Every structure is written in structure tokens, then in C-alpha cells.
Inverse folding.
């Protein structure tokens, strides 16, 4: 059956794009054999399409524009953080459980030897837990926004406002890292002077393939008088049975706790790899970009 | 070790924020191009880009891999750009602005591009100018379809998915837009008879 020109109109775009079915293509082509008006119409629209494809000038932007955009995006993400329900729940649940277990453990050990009756202990625990829950959720929004690192943006820099460490500690830690990188001499880490806090370096990539998915502890003794680093060691543990030593904010990451006394854990857990010497050299040659912003946690709070 | 896109998406979904940077690197030009074509100026395009990637980051758990990731990013970018333009128009109406600043910016932007491009200095410069101007003069809903189909190379089905409308609507808008363009570019279309 021959189609009229009006019927052809609705098929022209698809005919030009080759998205018509065979049946409709046959109808259009049959019509075109006898209709020069529609032939001209199709030719003109095809020409128009080609002009747009060939001559439209697409907007472009400089590399500087994109660089500025990435800096702003990084800043925005740091402010906003993940709002997806599962991410927030995951972080909150991990933090909550971590703190709850720690509080309970401390409370039990504290009152274990006393003669307090069960009711008193229960009431005390309830008070601790409810107080903790209230402060935890208040503090989470204000003090610990989720952190976001874009490639190269962290770059081993110590960013302002990222941690609860004070400026003096930041400077000394940064100086400490700089010393390690610039000199083969081993200096005493200023961080180790603070026995109440632990610094965690987060690795942006594993040290080596065989350490992937493992926790790496670097044990640094306070006694740095002998630079032979025989008092230090790198210990790589099987992933990750040592959950009680992991930061709740870092459950998916390999971490390098500085000044962590690993003896209790080295007795309990099998070591995958152990090196009694040379780790300082390894750390000195660690690319800066592998260590992102350090995070500090108060052991008492945790 | 370079991660594949699928792996980056998985990691981002699991909360690994470092997976976002390579995805931004891969899609930033595409999102910028699209945002520019819809909003018509760099500042607004920058805002759209920001919102697009923040949404990608925050909503990655809603991406179900039924469509390509690229299409999903397109959808977010187009929606963000459309919302941006709507908000801008509302502001303009409420402040009784009469001048179309974005039109002016676009004009100067594309002219600057033409001026700076030595290739366009040649005889086709005028043609490029008028074709670009013709596309930019289309209404928003028709311009988007032309951009996504003719310039980004998406299929009718993909565009329908991005714009949340039927394929028939996409076809109809594309057909109307082509006829509009044909009318706007009539001197150039009629000038050649190579088909």
C-alpha cells in the first residue's frame, strides 16, 4: 500500500538514522520512488544533520579550568561527605559498636573487683551507654565529618581541620616525616611522645602485592639512640583478626599505626611476614602519595 | 595498579572515596560539554559539574548497573543542568531581568573559540558560527535531544532513559528540531546539492 506524504513525515527521522524496521523502510522507499517532494525533504534534513555534526563548535575549557573544578569539588565533598544511607549507617554502626564494646570492657574491668550488686552495675552500664549514644551522635556530625581524598589532593600533606591534633603536633609530625624522607638518619618521632594518642597513616595503595588486604603495623620504639633500627620491626598480619586495634573509621583500609606496641598481638596472631631490620629504610623510601592525611584517635575515648 | 571502571564503582559503593577521582577524570569533559551546551556559560556549567559529581558520589548505591555507568552519569548531568536552568529562569523572572546574559556569554564564548582556532579562520568559519548559533537557538528540550543524539551519539532508547520520557517523544522532538534547524540553516542547506 502506498503511503501519503503526511505518513512519511513521521518516519523521516528514523529513516535517516537507519532505525526503521524493514517493513517501514520498504514503505518509505516505495513512496520516494514516486514523490520528488519527499525526496528533497529527506535530502535536506540529512544535509542539515550532517552540517550539525560537522560544523557545530563544541564548548571547550582549559586544563586550568578543570584543575580549579577538581579543587572545588574536593572541598565540596569534604564539607558534604557521603549522605547515602548505607554509607552513613555503616560508619555510624561501626563507630557505635566500637565505642560501646570499649566502654563496656572498661566498665567491667573497673568494677570487677568491687562488691557492687547486679542492679547497680546494670544501672551504671545503662547510664554509660545512653550517655555515650547521645554524645556520640552529636559529636559525629560536628567533629568527625567523613573524609574524602581525591587522587593527588592529599599527597601526604597534613590538611587543616582534618584531625583533632593541634598545630604543634602537626608541625612536629610533618617535620618528622620530612626528616625521614630527606635524610637517611633516623630521628625520634615527636608523635611517640604522646602516649595517649595513636597516629594512623592510611595507605593509598598497598606497600607490595603480598601485603594487600593485610594490616601493617610499624613498631617504633621510643629509644632511638641507636640508628640501627634493631628495636623496630615491620609486622604484617593476616587480615584482619585484630579488629580491636583498628580504627572504626578505617575498617576497609590498610593502616600504619605509629608507635603501636604490638607484643600482645604478636603473641596471639600469626604473622605473615616479619622483618626485624630495614623497615626504616622502607619507610624513608615510601612514596609520599602512599601516605595520606594522618588521623589521630584518643585511646581513652576509643 | 589501575582499577577498571567496574572495580572503581564497586569500591566507591563500598565507601572508598579515592575511587571517585579516576571517575571524575574520565567523565569531567563529557559532563562539562553537556553542562555548557545546556546552561550556556562556564560558571553555571561549573556548578552543574560540581553537583553532578557530588550526586554520583552520594548516590552510587542507587546505580544498579542495569544501564551503562556513562548513561547514568549523563542522566544525572542532564537533570542537574535542567534544574539549574529552571532555577535560573525563575530567578530571572522574579528579578524582572530582561537581558539574556547567558545568550551573550554564549555568543562571545563561541566567537572567541572561532577566533582562536586557526582552522576555523578559513572559509568554513562562517558556517561553523551559524550552525552553532542555530543549535543554541533551539528550545531547551529540542536542543538537548539534538546534543545527545547528533553530537554525543546516544540512541533514542538511551535518550529516553536519560530524559525519563518515551522513545516516541524523543523521535518527535528530534524530528521537530531537525526541521527547525533546516529552516534556520536554509541558505547553507540549499547552497549545496551533493546528494
Amino acid at each position: 500500500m502506498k503511503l501519503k506524504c503526511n505518513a512519511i513525515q513521521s518516519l523521516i527521522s528514523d529513516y535517516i538514522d537507519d532505525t526503521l524496521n524493514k517493513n517501514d523502510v520498504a514503505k518509505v522507499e516505495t513512496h520516494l520512488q514516486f514523490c520528488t517532494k519527499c525526496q528533497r525533504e529527506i535530502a535536506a534534513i540529512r544535509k542539515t544533520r550532517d552540517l550539525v555534526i560537522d560544523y557545530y563548535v563544541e564548548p571547550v575549557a582549559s586544563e586550568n579550568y578543570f584543575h580549579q573544578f577538581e579543587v572545588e569539588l574536593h572541598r565540596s565533598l569534604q564539607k558534604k561527605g557521603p549522605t547515602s544511607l548505607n554509607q552513613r549507617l555503616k560508619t555510624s554502626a561501626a563507630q557505635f559498636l566500637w565505642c560501646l564494646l570499649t566502654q563496656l570492657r572498661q566498665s567491667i574491668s573497673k568494677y570487677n573487683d568491687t562488691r557492687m550488686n547486679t542492679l547497680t552495675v546494670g544501672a551504671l552500664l545503662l547510664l554509660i551507654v545512653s550517655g555515650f549514644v547521645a554524645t556520640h551522635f552529636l559529636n559525629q556530625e560536628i567533629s568527625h565529618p567523613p573524609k574524602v581524598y581525591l587522587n593527588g589532593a592529599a599527597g601526604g600533606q597534613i590538611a587543616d581541620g582534618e584531625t583533632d591534633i593541634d598545630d604543634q603536633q602537626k608541625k612536629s609530625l610533618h617535620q618528622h616525616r620530612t626528616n625521614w624522607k630527606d635524610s637517611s638518619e633516623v630521628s625520634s618521632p615527636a608523635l611517640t611522645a604522646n602516649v595517649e594518642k595513636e597516629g594512623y597513616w592510611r595507605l593509598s595503595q598497598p606497600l607490595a602485592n603480598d601485603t594487600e588486604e593485610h594490616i601493617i603495623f610499624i613498631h617504633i620504639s621510643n629509644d632511638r639512640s641507636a640508628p640501627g633500627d634493631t628495636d623496630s620491626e615491620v609486622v604484617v598480619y593476616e587480615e584482619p583478626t585484630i579488629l580491636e586495634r583498628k580504627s572504626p573509621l578505617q575498617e576497609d583500609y590498610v593502616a600504619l599505626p605509629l608507635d603501636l606496641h604490638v607484643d600482645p598481638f604478636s603473641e596471639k596472631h600469626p604473622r605473615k611476614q616479619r622483618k626485624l631490620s630495614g623497615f626504616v629504610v622502607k619507610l624513608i623510601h615510601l612514596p609520599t602519595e602512599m601516605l595520606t592525611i594522618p588521623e589521630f584517635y584518643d585511646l581513652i575515648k576509643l | 595498579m589501575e582499577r577498571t571502571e567496574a572495580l572503581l564503582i564497586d569500591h566507591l559503593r563500598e565507601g572508598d572515596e579515592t575511587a571517585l577521582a579516576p571517575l571524575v577524570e574520565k567523565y569531567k569533559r563529557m559532563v562539562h560539554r553537556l553542562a555548557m551546551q545546556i546552561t550556556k556559560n562556564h560558571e553555571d556549567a561549573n556548578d552543574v559539574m560540581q553537583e553532578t559529581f557530588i550526586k554520583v558520589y552520594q548516590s552510587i548505591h542507587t546505580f544498579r548497573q542495569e544501564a551503562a555507568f556513562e548513561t547514568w552519569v549523563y542522566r544525572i548531568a542532564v537533570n542537574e543542568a535542567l534544574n539549574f536552568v529552571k532555577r535560573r529562569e525563575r530567578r530571572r523572572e522574579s528579578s524582572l531581568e530582561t537581558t539574556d546574559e547567558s545568550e551573550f556569554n554564549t555568543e562571545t564564548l563561541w566567537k572567541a573559540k572561532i577566533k582562536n582556532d586557526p582552522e576555523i579562520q578559513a572559509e568554513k568559519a562562517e558556517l561553523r558560527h551559524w550552525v552553532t548559533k542555530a543549535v543554541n537557538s533551539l528550545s531547551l528540550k529540542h536542543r538537548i535531544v539534538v546534543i545527545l543524539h547528533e553530537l554525543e551519539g546516544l540512541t533514542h532508547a538511551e535518550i529516553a532513559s536519560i530524559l525519563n520520557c518515551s522513545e516516541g517523544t524523543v523521535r518527535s522532538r528530534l524530528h521537530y528540531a531537525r526541521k527547525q534547524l533546516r529552516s534556520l540553516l536554509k541558505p547553507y542547506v540549499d547552497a549545496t546539492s551533493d546528494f
Summary: The two ends of chain B are 51 Å apart (CA to CA). Chain B touches chain A through 61 residues (CB under 8 Å).
